[in-house]
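Residues determine shape. Next comes a sample protein:
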Amino acid sequence: MPSSKLAKWLPGREIRIRRLERKLSQAAVGRFVKRSDQTVSKWEHGEKCPDVGQMWPLAAKLGMDDELRAYMIQIAENEHEQNFRSDRRFNALCLSMAERSNGQIHKWEPIFVPGIAQTRDYHFNLLPRSQPYTAEQLNRGWAFKKERQAALLNRTDDPTMRLIIGAQALLDLDLLSEKARRDQIDRLLELNACRNWEIRILRGPHPEGASAFDIYKPAGAEFGSPPFVYTELFDDSWCIEETDRIERYDGLWQLLWGKSIPLREFLNE
């Protein structure tokens, strides 16, 4: 079975970004784990993945927190398996990096406003209506969403962003206060006006089995990831790398896009 290209790309991006933030050379990082600067270069360009034994000292040297370190170790342990599988929180770390790096990002969310477009009131006052959350889970989740939102909007290379949101997600905004509802709509309109962004709304039935998914492609971005699709269940998630499966999701995306209407058109009806 082919090995995972994504499992080589993600650790390399983390290493490069954190190395540059700390003004370290590749040789300095290499010396710390008794490897050459050429090896570090291969990591940063997604040609190789550090092994488990190297991940521990790299995480300490480069300031990775416990959660990210555990995810990097899990990746190193499973790099020979395509379609990386992990719990949703862990794979969200991969999506965060893909949003910072890729040139083309497509998101389909039939039930909720996507996290990158949510307001604080939506996160804290509407999401808990779907299932119980502890205060710690809500606070940690919002901090992570704010970080993802800021990283995406601070990009200077204008990635192509396409969001399709199920109409029910907007109808459910009536569960918020009028001000919170208006703020969430304004947030969507603000993003829709950003360069290379487009948000569309899909009302009515959609194809059976077409649960939420994202498609990430490099689209010319220098450090973009290999193409992959992210999809999830309640207790599990996958980053799908197989070319034929990505093509099927591309076809599904085109179908959903064709059935949807622009955000402003929906709001004006």
The chain has a mean pLDDT of 92. The CA atoms of residues 11 and 233 lie 25 Å apart. The chain has two domains: 6-82, 88-268. The radius of gyration is 19 Å.
